[in-house]
């Protein structure tokens, strides 16, 4: 039979072997004969091979090989039969090459002798269809290899009971693990079993749950006693040994046993159990998870805070009574079926030792906070847990008896008014930020928190009247009580007024007032040492809410009444009205711009103060010229200023800018003529803003001083000041030559003459007319009518004729024109 129970055991063994090799546990590697793995129970294996120990195969085999990456097995035959196996690499790559060597029978590590079976065939070189190797009854050869020799399998072996053999598995090429399956009829000694496991193929025991019962009880380090477990596994057998180990490797090679009693070092750790048959050396590895937990099946208690009271005759000494049954209920709340013994202690050591337990009703004798340590023992499991909480004696809040005096300013001196009780809350509590104050008509109402009165506005109905303050600490909930005496005063203070001009840049009836400017008026005749505060409404002043700052901007435009409250040591002395007025500024046009024609000097223009929708007689004027009239006359450009003031003394300033302008001076006229695109450019100077027209004083005018595509002839150019300071003009000539003329008697275009010549422009010009052969036909008078198309009284035929023009300025032009009849 083939027992599979050790398969996972040896898988794990391999991992431990490789780990051990990396930390130089060389002596424990199964790659030497002396460390060979015992084969038990016809087990199948899954192994990796990694490295060699001592080279023991070289020269002892007929397959011409040696150890490369080897693992040794010792085989003892329990029942005679055939010894055969199949080795299967995990990788099916044909390059993975496994070899093996078999020594025996009854060979020893000191006297191995020669192999009786071996195979070193390379499956790739031999062109095999797979990379398996082993011993088989279907193969006749005892040895195969190396290289391409053989098919990787050799013949099986007949073996007898009691014989021992050494099998060496070697991997010269590749790096994958392998599996080993026994296929012969011989059997091996049985492996031991764990009687605690109902399933013989199982390797894991149930988890072991242990409470941390070693102080400090919450570090999850405790004593673990496996004596009983070991005895239960041995079950009275004399040839079974049991040991416990931290690692599977330690269990496999049987080193570093933990002992039956050891100290845990992880909250959750795996204990590996080696169960060995001392007669056959066969063993199995079981494992067990040990979970160490601290006892926590309870509710952590919260801080226990109690307000100080006067049960001991002093409600401010920080001592009071605590009932620990309250904490016991909290600790066990919601835990069903719990059977717990709970005790309270002043020190952790007392709690651990279960000594000096405190009484359930406990009165502290030292200042708090004090840490109380709790010991909690589960009667059923014996587990012990510990926790702690603080006890705190919370101080009662301060509650002073105070008095509040209010003014009777409603016009009826009957001693009744409205009080803002909130203004004395700070005095009641000495300014404690954690104190909340509420007010009641009676002590009973204050204690029962019933019929709370409106602290913002309380109307008294006795004068004086006692009410009651309940002070609650918002952090601790502790309360205290005091009396508040309310009294109505009939003293008074003076009214006052403030007025300012609306000169803040936004004429909207709003301005900022310095309220301190009325202090002397309000307090005139009053005792020294009074306090003064301003409020926007009478109600605010009465109950002292929303006090105003020193600088106040009115919220009602132009006219508003606010209130000043005068106090004598927080007692109301009087409430005064303060009338605030914002005066309007003069309504004027503050900026104005006009022009003065310099060429009109000494004529004057009139400047006014710019009054809008009102009579100038209602204002006072102060000009920068020193004049004080509503208007002035000026005859020069410049900047003129006038301050306009109304009867309230509020003013605005007006700035008038008088800009200079003038008729243009024509400095030059540039003419481009006798061309295909004649142009006139007018160059002027002067203080004005100018526009230009050609040959028409009424225009049209243009902003450009250049006229283009001008026909030949005589023109007048006009330059007009846009500010109406006048028009300048000048004659200009544009020389040009007609392309043709038609002397046919119809009265139109009867003569050919040079254009643009006059008595003022080029009068001494020479004009000669030629026919196409260069014959001089006429010499024209430049100021005359021109050539009529005849020569010596005879009409010349239609044709092209030539001209030569020498202008008075020296320019000479030669070209031709057409005579058309």
Please give a structural write-up:
With 821 residues, the protein is mostly beta strands. The chain folds into eight domains: 7-182, Jelly Rolls, CATH 2.60.120.380; 220-284, no CATH class; 304-394, Immunoglobulin-like, CATH 2.60.40; 402-489, Immunoglobulin-like (Sandwich), CATH 2.60.40; 496-583, Immunoglobulin-like; 591-661, Immunoglobulins (Immunoglobulin-like), CATH 2.60.40.10; 665-734, Immunoglobulins (Immunoglobulin-like, Sandwich), CATH 2.60.40.10; 740-819, Immunoglobulin-like (Sandwich). The chain contains nine helices and 56 strands. The strands form 17 sheets. A six-stranded mixed sheet has the order 1-3-12-6-7-9, with no helix packed on it. Strands 2-13-5-8-10 form a five-stranded mixed sheet. Strands 50-56-55-51-52 form a five-stranded mixed sheet, with no helix packed on it. A hairpin with a 6-residue loop joins strand 44 (665-672) and strand 45 (679-685). The longest helix is centred in the N-terminal third of the chain and has 16 residues, at 7-22.
Using brief descriptors, characterize the structure shown.
821 residues; mainly beta; Jelly Rolls; 6-stranded mixed beta sheet; 5-stranded mixed beta sheet; 9 helices; 8% helix; 39% strand; flat
